[in-house]
Amino acid sequence: MTSMTEPLEQSLRRYIKGKAVLLGIGNPLRGDDAVGTLLAEQFLDNECIVGIPAGEVPENYTGVIRNENPQTIILADAIDFKGEPGQVVLMEEIQLEERFSSHRPSLGLLMHYLRIELGATVLLLGIQPENTDYDSKLSHRVKETKSQLEKMFKNLSKPGKVA
């Protein structure tokens, strides 16, 4: 793992308690915007960290999330936080409101709803995109980040790795 994911893995280990849902958000036709959805697809059959690829309509998956009864929900999405392509941030609901008040407010509302309704810890895993042009592929840097995140989540989902 790179040094980028080691502190991230430590942070996630602190947050993840019991069963977790990895809700992948993004448009699969817009290059790096697909990264959250593609990441979640890697965890469809995982028992500890369940992947739910929600595409562009994560709010339509609240019932599916409820059925999983998670203690932790991680929304994975490409967000422009003016970082380097492939850079990752992990934010709680309040941090999202402070940093991105005008950027995709539906994510903040969704996080709030899930926290209140399910009593779960809800986090946003934001990945800085490089290219979100229509009909493009994942950029090299974002593809590398996705691979590192897959390894990290697989490590976190091994028995005994999360409380």
Percentage of residues in DSSP E strands: 15-25%
How are the strands of the biggest sheet laid out side by side?
2-1-3-5-4
CATH domain class name: Alpha Beta
| C-alpha geometry | globular
Q: State the secondary-structure class.
A: alpha/beta
How many alpha or pi helices? 6
The radius of gyration over CA amounts to 14 Å
Please mark out the parts with pLDDT under 50 across 5 or more consecutive residues, or reply none.
Answer: none
Tell me about this structure:
The chain is of the alpha/beta class. The protein has one domain: Rossmann fold (3-Layer(aba) Sandwich). It has a five-stranded mixed beta sheet, sandwiched between helices. The model has no long low-confidence stretch (mean pLDDT 88).
